[in-house]
Queue: 2 jobs
Job 1
Amino acid sequence: MRRSLLHLPIKRSAWAIRTSNVARIAATRSFASEASPNPEIYDIVVVGGGPVGLTLAASLGAARATSHLKVALIEGMNLASIRDWKPTPDYFANRIVSLIPSTVKLLKETGVWKHIKQERVQSYDGMQVWDGMTDARVEFDWNKLLGGRQEGVDTTIAHMVENIHLSHGLLQRLEELAVKPTMIDKTKVEKIEYGQLTEEVDMRDWPIVTLSNGQKLGAKLLIGADGGSSPVRTFAGIESRGWDYNRHSMVATFKIEDDSAFPKFAYQRFLPSGPVAILPLPGNFANLAWSTTPEKVAHLKSLAPEDFVAMVNAAFRLSYTDIDYLHNLKSGVVEETKWRESVTKYPDPPTIPMRITEVLEGTRASFPLKMKHADRYIGERIALVGDAAHTIHPMAGQGLNAGVGDVYSLVKSIADGISHGQDIGSSFTLEPYQSERYLPNNALLGFVDKLHTLYGFESGPLVPLRSLGVEIINQDWFGLKKFLMSQAAKS
Amino acid sequence: MATPTSTSLAHTCTRCLRSRTPQLSRQLYLPAISNNRTFSVLHRPPPNYPGHVPLKLPERLFLAAGSAIISLIDPRRGDLIALLGETTAQPYFIYRLRDRMLKHPTGRRILRDRPRITSQSLSLPYLRSLPANTIGATYVSWLDREGVSPDTRSEVRYIDDAECAYVMQRYRECHDFYHAITGLPIVREGEIALKVFEYANTGLPMTGLSAFSTLTVKKDERDRLLSVYFPWAIRNGWKAESLLNVYWEEVLEKDVQEMRDQLGIEVPPDLRKTRAEIRKKRREDKGGKVNTVAATTTNEVVEEAMVETEAEREEREQREIERQAMEILERADRM
């Protein structure tokens, strides 16, 4: 059973106060002696100021049991640009995240959601997912499943928010915390090592973080929210296993034809080279996430804007044979797709996405896709969250949601540790986090990875079998569809 | 009951995504329930292209089986062979063939232009004026020799997708070019050999089923097919480039041997010549026999000896032909 973070018992043990004193002493000492600068001691040092790292800092500050902790957050990029982010209604960033209801619930509890501008958030009730080879389709639509819209039932599948928007909201929330975390941005982690035994304090099992500006931070608990190639994970000697998909994800923001007549849906078509998805944004905007081979991504990026738009429209309408062929064309895609669409049968919106009219300039970007899972999430005075612990294929839009789930679980473990008077850095305190998160994350990673493999087949016996499976799910036999949808909403 | 708020989706058949336009019911002011009536013999959906006849699966199976049986009995029924081709090409094979064309730049261009081969689109007098070694001249001399015309090909009706129907049409119209480029005549033996070649090249089931008519030809022809022409057809059809991806209209002036080399096709032993020689020999033998019989009125011993020598000779000739054919194939293999 999950307890709300805000209702955790507030019990400051004598031990916690004592260690805080230690930290204060150490901090003053470091100021005094100039010859060998002692590290400044923090209860928690978070490496990485991405959405997961910021959510962690905000959650620690919001939960009563942990709000007194001395927290530092280190980020290599300039956070000022995120803090000063000024949205314009006719532009949406290309990097967006889908927040499932359980993630939004946590963000509400930690007081972040009120800083998110609702007019720039697009929620959707339905998903259309289909097979690029056989057109076998599964339709996830709560309203249809429940027989019409119902009062008091939240039928939202997910909310689409721009990454920068979420980070902006998180920073605003951090501003209003009573005990603000120390934000150190534009600074890289130079080195992580264990401390030394001095006359005052034994820091031999404390990680000491040396920053690019020469600053040294001693952490009672060092948390790595530092992404796939996590320096914290490397320091902890935790192996991360997985593989490179040899696929890149192409993102872009589009203007689409007026879709006000239809409900907002998310669309995903599984092509053998990888899934292509169109995600809804407010107004006549939409976002693309197209996973395909690096060569094809390079081709998509090199196309003229109108050819690129034609290519994306074709990706939801034409056969894979045609799409594959179009990837060989350097120009004239508009012409070619016009002809192919005139002789190809495809359904109308809202079964497929609305036609894209233009791509916003400078929003075409890509990143490589990996599947990676750390052997452990914790070590002595070490914890890993988000991508540092697990990197997932983005087809299900679960990367950040899993990261926020980690944050929730880790903060709960730390709070429990504090309330029981334990050292927050000990693996004994962190153990519940690891045991709560490892298996669900592993299952999610495995599921998405198998989907990737299953849909990678262009022909062969698995193609009809997967289509049969999809048809069974779509018919909601054995309540399979309801089960899947409710799992996806709370994973 | 009529539903006043029927959306555009309600007019679309969910199985085939075909628009269900209620023409008859509109005219007769029948209740809208007929809109939702499924595809039946009495309620055939509108054609996807002019001349298209949508078929239900039992209809399709019946036509396929019927045409297969009758065309096996009477192989001169070209219409039934065409029908067999159309009814068995769906659901998988014709789409695969279409995709093969779509993957090839020339095949794609053909699908875009959708050219038809008729005596209007091809100027036969011009083809006759071309040098003898060109594809056009080979094609037209082949037409003249066989006494056929490009217009003898019937329209495709039972393929559901308009583009796939064109692929079938194209295959059918180019069939004469395959005869020309392989040099196989339109006698049964040549047709069967060419069909097997096409099967290896296109994968259309009808062409493969045609191999069964080997059972109905004479024994010596069957032996020749099995030992010489089938191995040639399978090997060449398999490794040659897809013949549907050749824009025949554009290569009419090309050297036929150059084209064969480009496609990777070896010329099979000239079937017409072989058959003519065998016939000639047989006629000569028969003539000799008649003479002998006329000379020695009732000499059974001599006649028996003659019969024996005739059978022996035929066998020897057969072996000789096979040996020659194998030599050609071996030489081609070494190349």
Note: The two ends of chain B are 74 Å apart (CA to CA).
Job 2
Amino acid sequence: MAAEEQAESMQFHPMEQFTVEPLFGGDTIHWYTPTNVTLWMALAVLAIIGLLVLGTRKRAIVPSRTQSVAELAYGFVHSMVEDVAGKEGLKYFPYIMTLFIFIVFSNFLGLIPMSFSTTSQIAVTVVLAILVFVSVTLLGFYLHGMKFLGLFWVSAAPLPLRPVLAIIEIISYFVRPVSHSIRLAGNVMAGHAVIEVFATFAGAILIAPLAMVGIVAMFGMDVLVAFIQAYVFTILTCVYLKDALHPSH
Amino acid sequence: MATEATEAAGQMAEHGAEASGMPQLDFSTFPNQIFWLLVTLVVIYLVLSRVVLPRVGSVLSERQGTITNDLAAAEELKQQAVEAEKAYNKALADARAESQKIAAEAKAEIQAELDIAIGKADAEIAAKSAEAEAAIAEIRKGSVASVKKVAADTAKEIVASMGIKADAKSVTAAVTSRMKG
């Protein structure tokens, strides 16, 4: 009996939580269909408005708690952009803040049990990474013209090595959006999938306590990962932005 | 539950192995996700760039300004306090000097008046003592004459009582010579 139950619960697929489904029934997903992606992105927007708009409503000189958090987020990203990309990078601060706030809220909303994690979707992170990649590349060419290609020509290296290094640099440049997007989606997905696996094990009475401890531990780690991956994504964006602003090595 | 199962089955049939393996790789959902992601990003960008960032930025700079102003004001007040203390000390020293001056002046005035009074008193005393001396000299002179007369009279009486008739003139001369001796 127990073994049968266990086998049944084991069939529960840990990846099912990532399925995109229409919110209001039906099984065809058009580009405009409101899906669980829509719902959780909308919730993220609402949470962002709640914290950053309503929280700072009073514009207090001595901030309230929510205003402190909003100011902390502002200061965090602002100093990150300034430290990594320099003063010129502050022009692009709103875009980077948008990315960071979206990712961090999506990650944390995704940690709510039974929720849908939008940042675990390759489609979402790839679009984010491609947006960064394309805009940074265009910005580089717009600001520096053909000199932007100097990014791939390592003038500090001895001359015979330079073509080889250029090839490596070009490959690494084009791999950027791939690693940039897979890192985020992969981390979020892995964390959620592992929790789901532990939850499946929790159905079996013998290892349930262990599985629950595992869930708690993984959840703790996922909280960390949720913030760290948002941070990593943002700081890499800043690094790429710095390359566009100052292409010479 | 049943509809969910049929839905899942329908999806499985539609998307084949992809849906059952990694739902993220189900490309048929990509346009939908990308569309809603772009909508979300635009909304967040507008909210941030129109409302949040200017507001938080102004609050932060305002706070910085307030802190700087307060520090400057505190510095100014401290400066004022130091100046006030300096002024107070100066006033104190001035007052002390002034009082000393006034005291010295008063002392000098009193001394002058005193000197005048003493001078006057001395003069008066001198005058009085001269007068008194004159009076004494007169009295003395008077007394010597009386003593001579009394002595002469007494001597005449003594001589007369002895039964000797004496010349008044010679007795007087003898008394006078005796008194001189």
Note: Chain A is about 65% helix and 0% strand.
